[in-house]
Amino acid sequence: MRLNDVQARFKEIMLDHPDALRTPGDDFAALFTAGDIPLPARLSVYRNNIVGSLTDVMVAGFPLIDNLVGRAFMEKMARSFILENPPQNGCLNLYGEGFEHFIERFEPAKSLPYLADVARLEIALNAAYYAPDDTPLPPDALARIAADSLAETILLPRKAVRLITSPYPLEKIRDFCLSSNKDRAETLDISTGGCHLLIDRPALDVRVSTLQKSEYTFLSDLLAGQTLGAALEHTLTLDETFDVHNALQRFFTLEAFSAINPK
Amino acid sequence: MGRSPLQGENASSFPPAQPPSEPVGIGLRYPYYEEILTTDLPLGWLEVHPENYFGGGVHRYFLGKVREKHQISLHGIGLSLGSDQPVREDHLRQFKELIELYAPFNVSDHASWSASGNAHLNDLLPLPYTQESLDRLARNVERTQNYFGRRILVENPSTYLAFSGNEMHEDAFMNALAEMTGCRILLDINNIYVQAHNHGYDAYAYIDTIETRYIGEFHLAGHIEREAGKRTLLIDTHSRPVKDDVWNLYAYALRRHGIIPTLIEWDQDFPSLDTLVGEAQKARALIQSATETEISDAAE
């Protein structure tokens, strides 16, 4: 068997149902020397290394979901995700992207409709944590843009900046999960309203800020590369009371941008 | 690409890469960041997995701080050099960015594969030791060396399976790889011990077969034993102290091949930094004793 086929078959068995290790097929078994140690026991070392290490990565990357559903459920859900969505490269820092879509389809999690949005939040937090380092525009940079060119100005967001919106109060869910002196009987009312969140990383620590809906719309447009004028016009159609100067002042104070009119 | 202010105050003034003044190093891992910066370590160097430093943020910040004081090696786990497909360009690019930023004295990865098609199985998987594998591996090693503009080291893996179609022994395979590509061998002493047990061969003969001129680094780590059928399999977990038998094999390798930079690896169930440094001190003592034996042999 050619190396390419050996590796493809090995991969299939590693990502197959666990029972596949017990009956790997005669042609596959013939690739290996027989000995005192049965082939399934040898294969299972690799399988455990692969699925076990990736499960650890998932548990570490989704601490809120782990907290909400419990470790056994989290591991079960992670294992199913891993077999369907193995990593595509050798860097696992961002592994777990796509978990939100998996959760939406994962039958045992159907009773927890907010779970996929919690995954979206955790993916954004993780992406911000590992985002490439860059230098923010200082808060006073806004004042240096000539008034007559403001409308045509494009602002480049820093690489850590992510926006999340949800019909569920994600920041309250997060605080609830992270609360260390949580009473086991304590509950959280998830019908208390949705949220619009800005996730970024000013220096080394990831930060979550709550936005107004109009601020969220405006910043979404800027993130998509629209000019200040176009973003403002769009936002005013949704909220005619939107105060663009306050919003920009706030984003510059948060140091959300890295460049003006990037080439 | 320039350094951002977050990656250390003295961004452009890291000490140049050079062979470490002390031969023994340890793996720099997240739980040790703060302590390593505030402790005067009796260590020659620190090793990191570059994949953990792709992107930016807190990990790079600490790596920059550490690099101001220590020599480092970048020991890859994600290039998948042994795959029957080219090493990924984006992985090479991010790895090279770290080489340029942090000036490691050694750069390495493994004689194993992880990627098949678009799936990257997160483990160091075994290769059949055939001419075909050797050619594929050599091509990826050459591609990597060309991309980095420097020689890399390639480590012998721990394996739990042996291929019936092997055309050569692993030790000969490693020598041939070094001969073909100009790479150096990163000789993992624990991996040799683990495989000698798992596949029933002589670990000392393996050490003898590897050519001294190809060896660029030694690795040491702890393993565990697992029941499997009528026997036990040794599993290279990097989660325990180095076993006595492995220390003996290391002492033999030092006598056979000389003093070579040596890393103590520990990647799971992290011990205290003191324990890890204690393991490094044991390696240092064996180096000392090998040096003294050499001197007394020469005097006779």
What does this entry show, briefly?
The complex is a heterodimer of chains A (about 260) and B (about 300). Chain A is mainly α.
Average pLDDT over all residues of chain A: 94
What is the domain total for the residues of chain A? Answer: 2
Assembly category:
heterodimer
Q: Biggest interface, which chains?
A: A-B, 51 and 59 residues
How would you portray this structure in words?
The complex is a heterodimer of chains A (about 260) and B (about 300). Chain A has about 260 residues and is mainly α. Chain A has two domains: about 1-130, no CATH class; about 135-265, Outer Surface Protein A, domain 3. Chain A contains eleven helices and five strands. Chain A has a three-stranded antiparallel sheet with strand order 2-3-4, with helices on both faces. In chain A, strands 1-5 form a two-stranded antiparallel ribbon. In chain A, helix 4 (about 65-70) packs across helix 5 (about 70-85). The mean pLDDT of chain A is about 95. With about 300 residues, chain B is an alpha/beta fold. Chain B has one domain: Divalent-metal-dependent TIM barrel enzymes (TIM Barrel). Chain B contains nine helices and twelve strands. In chain B, the strands form three sheets. Chain B has an eight-stranded parallel β-barrel with strand order 1-2-3-4-7-8-9-12, surrounded by six helices. A two-stranded antiparallel sheet of chain B has the order 5-6. Chain B has a two-stranded antiparallel sheet with strand order 10-11. In chain B, strand 7, helix 5 and strand 8 (about 185-190) form a beta-alpha-beta unit. Chain B is globular and about 50 Å long.
